[in-house]
Amino acid sequence: MSSSTTYLPLFPLKIMLLPGEQTALHIFEERYRELIRDVESMGMTFGIPYASTDDGLIYGAEVRLVQITKQYPGGESDILVECTGVFRIAEYREKDPAKLYPSGEVRMISQYDHWPAKDETMAELKQLRDALGPKAAVLDKDEFRYVPRILLSLNLSNEQKYQFVKLANAERQESSLFNMLRFSRLIVEQEQQVIDGIFPN
After folding, report:
1. Over the stretch 105-125, which tens digit does the pLDDT of each residue have?
2. In terms of C-beta density within 10 A (0-12 exposed, 13-18 middle, 19 or more buried), how is residue 87 classed?
3. N or C: which end of the chain has fewer CB within 10 A?
């Protein structure tokens, strides 16, 4: 994790994104309409802190505006954003001193920028790919040698992604990823056994 902090406008949501992941948002509150106007005009990124029910605001995703997909007469808009990094909040301000929207200082977690998976994780991914068959050929692509991309292939919930980030230790995180891959493979294998008429005890 970086020791220095970065200023970001913030838009807390119950959404946890990982690098490369995109999501659509509907912008209707005036403070966040101002945020998107600033992002568009200045070409800056902003942060989406994950609004955890138990923890409050600790971790989040830095995102870039991909496009404004629809503008409404009343000033609301639909936008598409893409995650460019993961951060831990160092300081949160409910209202920026000069703006309507929240802002804060964050520390970027650099391991998400380039995080090759370990050999044992790749071996488990290969077993899952083999269990899924030809429909999973996409997992052979080079991009699936990296931890964030493998995580996205598992279609995790926002809470599951947050809990992974919250582990905050590369060894524990990779162990968690290995276990998720193994569990997914076992489910696929059991489903195939049922299709084949073999019912596991």
Report:
1. 999 999 999 999 999 999 999
2. buried
3. C
Reported as half-sphere exposure (CB side, CA atoms, 13 A), residue 168 has a value of 9
Rg (CA), the chain: 19
Token pair in block for residue 117: 């998976």
DSSP SS3 for 8: strand
- Are the C-beta atoms of 7 and 103 separated by less than 8 Å? yes
- Give the contacts of 51 (CB within 8 A, at least 6 positions apart): 12, 13, 14, 57
Over pLDDT 90: what percentage of the chain? 88
- Structural tokens at position 116: 């090759």
Q: Which of 116, 109, 57 is nearest to 83 (CA)?
A: 109
Please state the φ and ψ torsions of residue 12, each to the nearest 5 degrees.
-65, 130
- Three-state SS for 96-160 is CCCCCCCEEEEEECHHHCCCECCHHHHHHHHHHHHHHHHHHHHHHCHHHHEHHHHHHHCCCCHHH
